[in-house]
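Molecular record:
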Amino acid sequence: MNYFLGIDVGTGSARVGIFDERGVLVGHTVEAIKTWKPKANFVEQSSENIWQSICSCCHRVLAETEIDIATIKGIGFDATCSLVLIDECGNSVSVDPDEDDAKNIIVWMDHRAIEETNLINGFKEGYSAFDFVGGRISPEMQLPKLLWLKKQLPKSWKRVAHFFDLPDYLTFRATGSTVRSLCSLSCKWTFDKNSESDSGWDVNLFKAIGLDDLSEDAFESIGRSDLVRLMGRPIGQGLSESSAKEMGLLKGTPVGVSIIDAHAGGLGMLGLKEFTKNGEAEPINFNKRLALIGGTSSCHMAVAEEARYIEGVWGPYDSAMIPGFWLNEGGQSATGSLVDHVIKTHAAYSEAMKEATARGLSIYDYLNTFLSDLLTEEYDLVDGLSESLHVCPYFHGNRSPRANPELVGMVSGLKLSATVKDLSLLYLATVQSIAYGTRHIIEAMNAKGYDIDTLICCGGGTKNTLFLQQHANITGCRLLLPKEMESVLLGSAMLGAVASGEYQNLIEAMGAMSHLGHAIQPEEATAEYHARKYEVFHQLYEDQMRYDSIIKKGI
């Protein structure tokens, strides 16, 4: 049996999984990574800390599985779309206001560059780059962060030899090659593989916004067009001698071109087959499928054979996830992090956590059980318990489809009490608000040619039965859960499988390594209730805009 290593770096941890050629997970480990928040909206990490966490995971999973390293035939990396600064010797360069070089990553969720984002979006007219990001650059993308660095940390700016998306930094660290992923550069850096420019970059846009010095070295520091590759293509001579020693693997083990973490989840899920009662595989209709990858934030990935331009939804990106297909990417900037924030900042959290621990339950399972115990003849389904409590989930802005990072969260229906019951109802309303956001994204996509009626889900939220059923009820879509729920790790392993030659391309790997687990159907009895709640969801946004307008009249 051949095995493939999937390596995933999320917002809070590094994970390594070993999969066989059929996509079966035979072992995995996880290790937390460090995060610093020196100011409001500043989120920083360390590439050295992340690499050492990966290496520690590799050694542990190899020891636990006792797999012969000679049978590890390929490695794939995915990570968050965070920005990494490296000098010409491969050393870290600071992104921190105190100039600490250990902190050399601006994390994807960092919103320090709001001013630069607004400046760049002021150049929307006349530049094609905006056509491929739903009409607006996000502060979660790299151009605003680069412009902030140039303005605020000029010493670091001058020292940098390479600005990497974190997935590409990891393959650089593993192989020594500065090959870049088409996924990262297309989705977060405005690279266009179909550009009339030989460089793939819009030189005029860079000049207009004040980043013209990047083009002086033919974009060497952010990615030359001749070094941009499709995901899963083998990089150079594979794993370098030094990295192989650090990871406990063999020198020369093939390493595939990297991918963003959510996009790895898309690879791990969208190709799973459904079968008829006769055991025949049904044709896959990508037009009806949406990959929902939940975690700190949520991403919504859909692909089509033609380019679809959707206001407020990122893309279309040519071959940025599945080669030969155009990718559209919706998203919510705070989902898992929002639920945790609402729970942990509530006055009844300590009491609820104490009771959950006593029962051997997670806080989520405890609250789900508490909600079920509240049901009566009047409320025979959990959904209706939130009828007087409404949440606008934009606590960290809105990524899609409103594309406004400056929006804020709202709660309507609070009372002068803070009991565990109050916490459980607020938790329910928050989960529902996230699902309404997903419904909004689906409606925007379907209005432009998709016919999405199926969500294929992975990530932290998929361990929560309430989260899943509310998404089914609110979107009206059936949910498919993969047999292998570690779909992001699986997507990374697919990159290693393609790089090794086990599979000719990603489509073949997706069909062979991804399998269906079970389905969740929407409860039709809740449809009319959620139609009314969804109307309130939109009204909360309209009210926020009205409040803002009233306040600004006096400014």
Summary: The chain has a mean pLDDT of 96.
